[in-house]
Amino acid sequence: MRYFIRDTTLFLRGRFRAASTGINGGIADVTTVLNHTVPRDFDDDPPRYLDLLTARHGLSREYFGLLTAVRMRHLCVLQYDFVTVFITAGVTNPTRHDPDSPHTINIIVYSREGMSDAALLETIITTTGAKAQALHDLGYDFPGTTTDAVAVACDRDTASAHTYAGTLTEVGRRVHAAVLYGVPEALARQQGKVRRSEPSFFIYSRYGGDHWVEWQKEGCPYYPCHFPGQRCDYCYCPYYPCVDEELGEWVESSSGGRVWGCAGCTLLHVPEVADYLKRNPEATLAELKRLRDKR
């Protein structure tokens, strides 16, 4: 999976098996899942609007799409092992009222590990439950807004490792934790309580005890961790795990099993490579390595 923001749209690109409660939702094989910001006075036909949007970006109609009035700079991305969750949130359109402002809570869940169709659907339940709990914990007396949507995707070329996705399962507990933590963070940014100029990225860390950490390239205490002048836009690599033995290796995990270790990889820290990837977010590793080698 590769994700990037272009203009006012979050794109997830890959070969997915996915389920969505959004526009033209259902369960299907898709190559794109997106969340797009519309004006507050949006009054277009949503399916037609999304078809035109994807066509402008040269994408096929194999997609699931969500719409929101929340700006993409308020997006929160949360990574918990093999699960990544994307949240935009606004609550000026709660289910118990009918105000004019059309905000919504959109959540996209991606699993790097395979999931059965039943698990994809159960993830929607797990996500919705965590969202409702987060709103309750914040003191709201409603479980969501009138236009909330959830999309769940996994790599369809990966064997189905997860049959269920309730909160006691490996995938479900990660999704629940990410949504429970992420909804308040996303709301804080949309409401101006936390100010960021670009989307926020959180990683579930086990160093010094299990906890969420917001990674920010500005003021990183480890800079420069590789070489002076390095770029840090992709500190958490979008290719992970690339399984390219020139760039990393399999290492034994302290909890058992093997994990892909790439602490010594500097490819995406090379300024020319980072700039190229920003302009071409679907570039292959081979492209980036050729660019590095030409320096």
Automatic annotation (TrEMBL):
Alphabetical keyword list: Hydrolase
Enzyme class: hydrolase
GO-annotated molecular function: adenosylcobinamide hydrolase activity
Domain Cysteine-rich small: 211-290
Keyword DNA-binding: no
Record has DNA repair as a keyword: no
InterPro entries for the chain: AdoCbi_amidolase, CbiZ, Zf-like
Organism domain of life: Archaea
E.C. designation(s): 3.5.1.90
Name of the molecule in the record: Adenosylcobinamide hydrolase
Organism: Methanoculleus bourgensis (strain ATCC 43281 / DSM 3045 / OCM 15 / MS2) (Methanogenium bourgense)
Top-level taxonomy: Archaea, Methanobacteriati, Methanobacteriota, Stenosarchaea group, Methanomicrobia
Name of the gene encoding the protein in the UniProt record: cbiZ
